[in-house]
């Protein structure tokens, strides 16, 4: 072979292989290892709830005040505080959009509905669903749990947890599910009125305790209000929600760690 041609070939080989070696030196020679370092949390497999504290290293997922919990009624502290929880849910509140975020179906609300809890206003931001329920009462798991997420002007969070059991059809859920199905990652604009006051939450007994978000980053100092009496919705309504969400999108029960659960009557 001509020596000049041989030299050109060597230079060409060096040029096309250099970027690969440079990338390997900077990022590691195994692409799989680099991929695994960026795992996202989920509800199953290697990224299931038991591994969240490893995956989300800057989170509170390994904290001592985590949610959800199993509420044992006989161990709760019965109390009655007048007007501690007040509802300002109007029939004219607008749903802004609905999203399948890959973890749940989430309805986002425009400004309107709010609650007053311990003399502080918390505005309703969104509701989403877990199937089966995350919280248990006396060890009982319900087919569905609905979270009403509220935030204050200072960034505090109060979540209302409403458990659901199967029975007759619910007009409210028929309305909400009229915007489904929705593929993972998809969002649909709604801008329609919904009447959450029809749930009559102000007439229900509830438990309260200090806990955390039930998804990463599992932030603690969340006010939890878990209603004792479940709502009723049909089997078809439960199944329709289930078919639009990841299978078993719930976090496992967390230790109470000497926290006090209050029962409000």
UniProtKB/TrEMBL annotation:
<dbReference type="InterPro" id="IPR036398">
    <property type="entry name" value="CA_dom_sf"/>
</dbReference>
<comment type="function">
    <text>Reversible hydration of carbon dioxide.</text>
</comment>
<dbReference type="InterPro" id="IPR041891">
    <property type="entry name" value="Alpha_CA_prokaryot-like"/>
</dbReference>
<keyword id="KW-0479">Metal-binding</keyword>
<feature type="signal peptide">
    <location>
        <begin position="1"/>
        <end position="24"/>
    </location>
</feature>
<dbReference type="GO" id="GO:0008270">
    <property type="term" value="F:zinc ion binding"/>
</dbReference>
<dbReference type="InterPro" id="IPR023561">
    <property type="entry name" value="Carbonic_anhydrase_a-class"/>
</dbReference>
<dbReference type="InterPro" id="IPR001148">
    <property type="entry name" value="CA_dom"/>
</dbReference>
<feature type="domain" description="Alpha-carbonic anhydrase">
    <location>
        <begin position="39"/>
        <end position="265"/>
    </location>
</feature>
<comment type="similarity">
    <text>Belongs to the alpha-carbonic anhydrase family.</text>
</comment>
<keyword id="KW-0732">Signal</keyword>
<keyword id="KW-0862">Zinc</keyword>
<keyword id="KW-0456">Lyase</keyword>
<dbReference type="InterPro" id="IPR018338">
    <property type="entry name" value="Carbonic_anhydrase_a-class_CS"/>
</dbReference>
<protein>
    <recommendedName>
        <fullName>Carbonic anhydrase</fullName>
        <ecNumber>4.2.1.1</ecNumber>
    </recommendedName>
</protein>
<dbReference type="Pfam" id="PF00194">
    <property type="entry name" value="Carb_anhydrase"/>
</dbReference>
<dbReference type="GO" id="GO:0004089">
    <property type="term" value="F:carbonate dehydratase activity"/>
</dbReference>
């Amino acid at each position: 072979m001509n020596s000049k041609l041989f030299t050109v070939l060597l230079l060409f080989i060096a040029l096309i292989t250099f970027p690969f070696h440079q990338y390997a030196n900077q990022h590691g020679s195994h692409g799989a290892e680099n991929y695994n370092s960026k795992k996202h949390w989920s509800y199953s497999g290697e990224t299931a709830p038991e591994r969240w504290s490893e995956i989300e290293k800057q989170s509170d997922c390994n904290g001592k005040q985590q949610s959800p919990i199993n509420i044992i009624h006989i161990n709760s502290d019965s109390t009655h505080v007048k007007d501690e929880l007040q509802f300002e849910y109007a029939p004219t509140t607008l749903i802004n959009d609905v999203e399948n975020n890959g973890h749940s179906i989430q309805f986002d609300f425009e400004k309107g509905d709010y609650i007053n809890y311990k003399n502080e206003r918390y505005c309703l931001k969104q509701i989403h669903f877990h199937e089966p329920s995350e919280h248990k009462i006396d060890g009982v798991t319900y087919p569905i749990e609905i979270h009403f997420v509220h935030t204050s002007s200072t960034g505090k969070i109060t979540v209302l947890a409403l458990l659901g059991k199967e029975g007759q059809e619910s007009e409210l859920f028929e309305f909400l599910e009229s915007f489904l199905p929705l593929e993972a990652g998809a969002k649909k604009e709604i801008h329609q009125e919904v009447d959450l006051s029809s749930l009559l939450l102000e007439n229900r007994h509830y438990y309260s305790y200090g806990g955390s978000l039930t998804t990463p980053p599992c932030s603690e100092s969340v006010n939890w209000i878990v209603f004792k009496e479940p709502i009723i919705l049909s089997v078809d309504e439960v199944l329709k929600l289930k078919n639009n969400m990841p299978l078993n999108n719930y976090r496992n029960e967390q230790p109470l760690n000497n926290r006090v659960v209050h029962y409000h009557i």
